[in-house]
Amino acid sequence: MHTVKRIEIVADSVELGKIVESLEKHGASSYTIIHNVASKGIKGTAFDNSAVTMLDNAYVIAFCHPDKAKSIVEAIQQILNKFGGSCWISDVMEVRSVRCVASI
User: Half-sphere exposure (CA, 13 Å, Cβ side) for 28?
Assistant: First the structure.
């Protein structure tokens, strides 16, 4: 086990390309994207019932080495400042398994 930073982002789907590009450019080793998320924040409530996917919210969870977190957050903050969104960072422990058991 070792410590990594978990970066969670909720943003408009229209900004996903820029967010993913920034994550990769600044060293986020892995990430997951969940589309059509419903949320409530200071701007109100966003539901996933829109027929237009570009107007939906997306949730991104990424992990990186602690030394890379500051540059990632600075890049993400510039994107979120245009259309809004939220970003959270926390310390977590990563457990990697390299001994996979395929038989059940």
Answer: 26
